[in-house]
Amino acid sequence: MTIQWFPGHMTKARRQIQEKLKLIDVVIELIDARLPLSSRNPMIDEILQEKPRMIVMNKADLADPEVTKQWVEYFKKEGVTAFPIDAYSGYGVKDIPNQAKLLLKEKIDRQIAKGMNPRAIRALIVGIPNVGKSTLINRLAGRNIAATGDRPGVTKGQQWIKVGSEMELLDTPGILWPKFEDQNVGYRLAVTGAIKEEILNVEDVAFFAVKYLSQYYWPQMAERFDLQKRPQDFENPDEIVEVMEAIGRKRGCIMSGGRIDLEKASLIFLRELRAGKLGRISIEAPY
Ligand code: GDP
Hints:
Function: Required for a late step of 50S ribosomal subunit assembly. Has GTPase activity.
Number of strands: 7
Distance between the termini: 32 Å
InterPro entries: G_CP_dom, GTP-bd, GTP-bd_ortho_bundle_sf, GTP-bd_ribosome_bgen, GTPase_MTG1, P-loop_NTPase
Number of helices: 11
Pfam family, one: MMR_HSR1
Protein name: Ribosome biogenesis GTPase A
Bound molecules: guanosine-5'-diphosphate
Keywords: Cytoplasm, GTP-binding, Nucleotide-binding
């Protein structure tokens, strides 16, 4: 589902999260492992302030494992705990309560030293639409809780979900807007399907992806689409369009007169990429 993020909605979304922050000990910032920075909210630091938090890189099953490792290092250097998961299969999900405990260790130790019995850690998941918040909530809960595609501005009674004996999770996630200002961010989000095709032109989105993959994932491209000629100059649009045409030819996207139907080729290419048919691909690297 696409959300129209008008300034008023952003203010409201921000206020809703700040209200929820009062109730919790730790934030789980969910991002997409294939495009970690592009799938973050631009004001996240300002919104979360000093609240302890971890970055959880979801959909790691679709991301390039080598690049994901680099991102983990990148965030470590920034002083933030980050680790990959796959909310779908559950890979890495059990690390979340453990990391929450680590993040709050000093506070918990102080409580124990005072003879107090520490209560369960309260957590909130935040992230942009489509990053997998509802899938993760259901996975942590071990049952179906949140309707996928939750909307900002729709308030329902909040409840705590027990995650083991040491963590509780708010059942409604915090939904934040992505960085619209940067066009490349928009393209990266669109490549993954997080932004609907009606917003950005499908051929432009495919062009962006074909250019990136020709540069960084050529063997996978060549094998999947039987490509012979790798672009020499990635900044030359004609060479990228040639690759798109070769993909179209391979997939039978031919119009009357023999011209390649680039729109159809773009749709097919993006569908295969999103379905993981080209293998595990990241479309943003830290270095
Ligand atoms: P939300 O808008 O953040 O709540 O996102 P959803 O939980 O609705 O997930 C958006 C889409 O991503 C759905 O189609 C999910 O099935 C899919 N998804 C969520 N987590 C994963 C994951 O770890 N791996 C893969 N491959 N897909 C996922």
